[in-house]
User: Fold this.
Amino acid sequence: MLYALDKKTLRTWSKLGVFLPEFEGAEFLRVVFRTDPKVIAEILPKPLKPTREPLGLAFVARYPTTNFGVSYDEGALFVNAAYKGEVGKYCLSMPVTNDMAMIGGRERYGFPKKMADAITLERDGGHVVGSVVRHGSELLHLEAELTDEVDLGAPDPAGAPWTKDPQGRDAVKAISFLFKFFPAASGSGFEDPPRLLRQVTLFRPRPGLEAGTGKLELGGSTADPLGEIPVRDVLAATYGVYDTAMLPARRLATVRNPLRFAPYAFFSTDTIGVLDPADRPRLSRRERRQLERKLVSY
Assistant:
């Protein structure tokens, strides 16, 4: 039965190796932009550090075919970050339109995924528009006026290097820095120390990749404050179809001081935007500990 797999089924699955989420014919509208270096320095949790260029990346994507049985749409916002000299991107937000995609990306890798109201990606001639709406607020609005075809193998506008995938095919190597953590079941702190992960996604562009001028507007709410990230200049806008694969993540570091990381953890859920501190009693540390001991004694 599904809720208690038999040994034969478990042995079958154990011989399949590591599962790599794959996306065939994924359609992307991407915008690379310059933001405020002071803002990046403020929002990057340690041990991540700002890069020389304060760059961000926003995208809206449509995934018509995956190897895990769902099709869905997705939006995302990243800013550049570095760990021990390696440059990657720190994910701030990643709304999706499918619950299985949300659970898989969040619980395996630590992507800050939430369910969106609607995500759209529409093209009319050379004009492409992508939009992400959540709880009635448009969080991402991307536009591109496509004017040029991009040669396969050209430098990636977001700065990701070229590499070979496990089958020897050319692919762009996108590095994401993510913090994986879970709130403690006791209601206070984290279940385990948060961990910094490094995850690589390989993008194999299909012929027909296009570029042009772009526009990006970041909106937000108390639960999704994307609008607090300034868009100083739009540097590049691209549109195309890719075949992509998400590789396993590896741990880079463990956060030894969870209190230092706590300010960055609230926006993985909507709690900070729903609860009003004024409606809750203020307790001293001693009173909180006494209450916690009382509640777990039931």
Notes: The chain is about 15% helix and 45% strand.
